[in-house]
Design a protein that fits this description.
The protein contains two helices and 14 strands, in the order E-E-E-E-E-E-E-E-E-E-H-E-E-E-E-H. By secondary structure, the protein is mainly beta. The protein has two domains: 2-158, no CATH class; 166-225, no CATH class. A five-stranded antiparallel sheet has the order 3-4-5-6-7, with no helix packed on it. The protein has a four-stranded antiparallel sheet with strand order 8-10-12-11, with helices on one face.
Length: 227
Amino acid sequence: MVIGEPRESVRVAKVVLVKKGDLYVSHLAPDIISGKHSYHESGVSHSYVDLINDSVGEGEPAGRKLRGMSCYLMVTSWGCPEVLQPTGFQPKPETKIHHTLIAPKSEIGWFCCVWAIERGNKGLAERISQTSPWPKVPVVASILADWTDPWILVTVCDFKSKSPYQVIQYSLSIPGRVPSVFVPEMFEGTWLENPRPKWRPGEPLPNEWLREAQEYLARKRARPFRR
């Protein structure tokens, strides 16, 4: 994934699905948080963040297996609310199993999503690639790897406003959860809206969040004793 045309280009991500079934997403943009997200064939996933030199998500229950999956799954998403300095990255030549998504140069910042799509469901892939996560963060480019199982879709959005959402911190902090939320949430009000509980200032913390925190602490306590 590249932002801007060469010579004004900068490589910001690399997405690889290996034959075994593991999916790797490398965040490569300079001067911001870089790292790697791994979604394994077993359904176990975790992220490594260079800034904190640590992994996030280890010990979490396995999710859906990607091979042979139905419908869709948003594997990971991240953004950069600033303009990146060009590096003049030159994409490799296209092959049957390697393509480069060149997204328009962003004036404010960009947002990216990596999706797993049911193999053969082109209508679903097209619908996702036309749905913006926020009204002021429209999808401007996408690419579909339709030779894999599942299909892999990457969408890139541009910030059209410096404040397309609010970032609100809650307290008390909950173990295993970043103590802030986006208002509105990503895809809120669209067909891709997450059905999980939402929180707004002044409301009690959702019971589901508190239950997940208890499970997180239990896994963390048990991990050192595993053989």
